Amino acid sequence: MNSDKIVDAKGMACPMPIVKTKKSMDELRSGQVLEVHATDKGAKNDLTAWAKSTGHELLSTAEENGVYKFWIKKA
């Protein structure tokens, strides 16, 4: 999946993946896609809930070698 920006939050514990995601999302225009990489298992629930609460669309998730990947479309 194509993304407009990638956030590397690997090795960070909650709430840092959300903090970095929010900061990066603020730099994108509506309709652009942010790709987030995290190793914190809680990130899956956290980013899903964050996207829903902020109106952004979680397009897809994947796990690769212990790295959780998220693609979030800016509202």
Automatic annotation (TrEMBL):
Domain of life: Bacteria
One Pfam short name: TusA
Residue stretches making up the UPF0033 domain: 7-31
UniProt family annotation: Belongs to the sulfur carrier protein TusA family.
Name under which the protein is recorded: UPF0033 domain-containing protein
Organism encoding this protein: Paenibacillus sacheonensis
